[in-house]
Amino acid sequence: MNARPRPQSEALFDAAQALIPGGVNSPVRAWKAVGGTPVHVARGYGPLVIDVDGYEYIDLVMSYGPLMLGHAPASVTEAIIEAAERGTTYGAPTGGEVQLARKIVELVPCVEKVRLVNSGTEATMSALRLARAHTGRDALIKFDGNYHGHGDSFLVKAGSGALTLGEPDSPGVPKALAELTLVADYNDLASVEALFDQNPDRIAAVFVEPVAGNMGTVPPVAGFLEGLRELCTRHGAVLVFDEVMTGFRVARGGYMERCGVMPDLVTLGKVIGGGLPIGAYGGRAELMNQVAPAGKMYQAGTLSGNPLAVAAGVAMLNELSEPGVYEGLEATGARLERGLLAAAAKHGVPMVVGRVGSMLCPYLAASEVTTFGDVMASDRARWVPFFHGMLERGVLLPPSPFEAWFLSTAHDDATIDQVIEAADGALAAI
Ligand SMILES: Cc1ncc(COP(=O)(O)O)c(C=O)c1O
Ligand SMILES: N[C@H](C=O)CCC(=O)O
């Protein structure tokens, strides 16, 4: 199949490379892992995006997770327009912030109080500072291949774009700070226990993506999150679930609602902003009351609680509160998983699918993927022609085998069947 010519995307990418580092404002968008020119998007509606050359694609990037209702859902768009007409930012508290905070407190089980920030990165940086302030300790444990945004303390064995570019430990992070980040193996409780034993009274927090979504999609094995809870309680460390990706995606109350394990703090982002920039961290009142001005741990933001983001988030969470939404997303995810596995089996391509609800990742691998090592052992070279085969058949995937695919309520059965048909063709050709 011949690649479709994309002169407009190419011209824009050339111009962007002269103006913006690597031509993009977030590294994973540069298609370094798959090669070629990134598709530059002109607009999106429902499950589709249209590029600047006029081609239409079924979108499985979905802005890396926020767009639970597809592109430009009327309720969210109207809420943004109404809010913008009243002014875009005030630097003063608003009723909208209270509405969004109330929704989060009502729906996310571990949250009694929540602070809104501007991105997932800010949320995790702030949660880490709070854990350090609370415990008076400096070290943290994170997991190989988990990604918590680009705060210095987290760019150690990081997933997502850092992994894609082969830079999981970024230059520019002070060595003294990086040494405080201890790295354990995801889904391996013994590796966490060993770090606690080797570092008595040093560990402020354990940060975990309860479903690892920045090395594809790797659900936790039975007992892993329960074990982290027990270890943190035993050693006086703060357990932080980074649900920036999974919050309101895998269930209204995030993955903690599905698994029943309660962290001390949670970080949120993506969905709660309805597609506008936002982040949040929250937890028990006793912890959150240490944040300024209630307490001494300083954290602030000129645009925090931005009226547009908050209005979009409230509209999004209202729609997600409708009955049947998550059951529908589960069915959509299951349909795609079944179709992908059937297509792979038909063409003799080894495949396993990691999936929780509407986030998923097919690995070109013959056996179960539960660890970072399993992810790295999957056939990433063969994934590249698969990506391009899908693209040429009108399906836009995240441009890296380490990124999750995201579905929305706008992806109906007919759309999913088109994705499966494209996968059938793409897998036949690799
Ligand atoms: C689990 C997780 N935590 C934190 C972040 C950082 O969020 P943001 O990109 O909004 O800074 C991301 C995504 O980038 C994420 O997937
Ligand atoms: N995997 C990342 C976040 O979830 C993708 C977003 C980005 O880094 O641009």
From TrEMBL:
Gene this chain is encoded by: hemL
Organism this protein belongs to: Engelhardtia mirabilis
HAMAP family from the UniProt entry: HemL_aminotrans_3 (MF_00375)
Locations listed in the record: Cytoplasm
Origin superkingdom: Bacteria
Protein name: Glutamate-1-semialdehyde 2,1-aminomutase
Cofactors (names): pyridoxal 5'-phosphate
Native organism taxonomy: Bacteria, Pseudomonadati, Planctomycetota, Planctomycetia, Planctomycetia incertae sedis
GO BP annotations listed: protoporphyrinogen IX biosynthetic process
Transmembrane segments: none
Record keywords: Cytoplasm, Isomerase, Porphyrin biosynthesis, Pyridoxal phosphate
This protein's record includes keyword Isomerase: yes
GO molecular function terms noted in the UniProt entry: glutamate-1-semialdehyde 2,1-aminomutase activity; pyridoxal phosphate binding; transaminase activity
